[in-house]
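pasting for the record
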Amino acid sequence: MKCRHCGALLEFPLVDLGSMPPSNAYLTEPSLAATEKSFPLRVLVCERCWLVQTEDFACATELFNAEYAYFSGFSSGWLDHCKRYVGDMVARFNLTHDSHVVEIAANDGYLLQFVKSLNIPCLGVEPTASTAHAARAKGIPVIEDFFGTRLARELVIRGLEADLTVANNVLAHVPDINDFVAGFSTLLKPQGVSTFEFPHLMNLICQNQFDTIYHEHFSYLSLTAVNTIFQANGLKLFDVEILPTHGGSLRVYAQRCDGDKPIEDRVVKMLDMESEAGMTRKSFYLGFQAKADGIKNDLSAFLRKIKSSGMKCGAYGAAAKGNTLLNFSGIHNDLLPYVVDKNPAKQNKWMPGSRIPIVDEAVLKKDQPDYVIILPWNLRDEVMGQLSYVRQWGGKFITAVPALEVL
C-alpha cells in the first residue's frame, strides 16, 4: 500500500488489531441471522510524511451508510464544548448576520444549532442520511454528500463561499485526504478561516489509546503530518490549541495560502514538541502492539474472574471505541451481557462483532451489577456523574484504557 498523502510505499506497521466489522455497523434483529462483513484492522506509518493510516480494506460508502448510528448530540459535555466554540469564533473572527458558516460532517446539527440561534447563516454537509435528517429537524439546511473539491466548487458556483468552515473529528475519516483538504481552500472566502479538531496522535501512542483505531478512521494525525498535508493542498496553518476532548485533541486554524493572518508562536512550539518527542522517528512507534495486547489480556482476565466469582458486570456507552476494544479482546455476551446507551438509535440493536445487546438505562437500574465498564473512557467523569446511583448498591466503575482501572 502507498501513503494516501505522499504516495510513499508503506512498510512500517504500528498495530494489527485483527479482523472486525466496522465499529458503527450496529446490528438489528434481522441482521443477526446474516453473516457480518469484517475487514482487517491494521495501521501503518509513513516514514516520509509521518501520516499514520489504516491499511485500505473498506471504502467510505460501506462505512458511512444510511444506517450510520453515531449521533454527536447525546453528550452534554460535547454540546457545551461546541457552544463555547461558536461563541469564541464569533468573537475572534467578527462573524455577523452577513457571514456564512459551513460545517463539514455536520452530523445531527449538534454545533450548527448554536450558529443558527445567533441568526448567522449556516450550512451543513453530511453524507449519512440518519444524522442529516436529525439536523434538518432542527431547521439546519444540509447537503447530503461527501465533501471534496467537486462539492466545494459546486458550493462556490451557488454563492455559498464560507467565512468559517468547521470540521470537527472528520479529518481522520476521509480516505482521500488531499482532495478533502483542497476542498477547504476552494470553499473559503479570501479572508476566511477553517478550523479542524482531531484526536492528537501523540496521546494515542503515549496513552495506549488503541481503541480509538477503527475502520472509519483512515488517518491518525500529528500536527507535523497535518501541516505537510495542508501546505500541499492550498491551506496555511496559523494557530493551534490543545483540547481535552476525545482523550486529547488539537484544534488547528488554517487560512488560504494567500491569507495574511500572522502565524502564532503556538504552531512552531507544537511542531517542535512533536519533533522532540520523536514523532518523526520510528522508535516513537515501537512497542505499541505489545501495549494493546496487554490491555486486551487484562480486560479478558478481569471479566472471566468476575464471572467465575458469581458477580455481575455491565457496560455503558455503545461507542465505536468500545467496539474496537471488545472485538480485539474477544469479549462476547457470555462475559458482558449488555451495553447501556441513551441514544435511541442504538437501543434494541446489537454491538457489531461481539453481538452484545444494547439496552436503555432502565436495565442497568434493574440489574444492579457489581461493575460497570465505561467504554467511552473520554467521557468518564460525565458518565460517572450520570450514573452516580450505581454507588448506592455498591457498584464500581471500570475503564480499560490506558490501563485497567477500578474507579
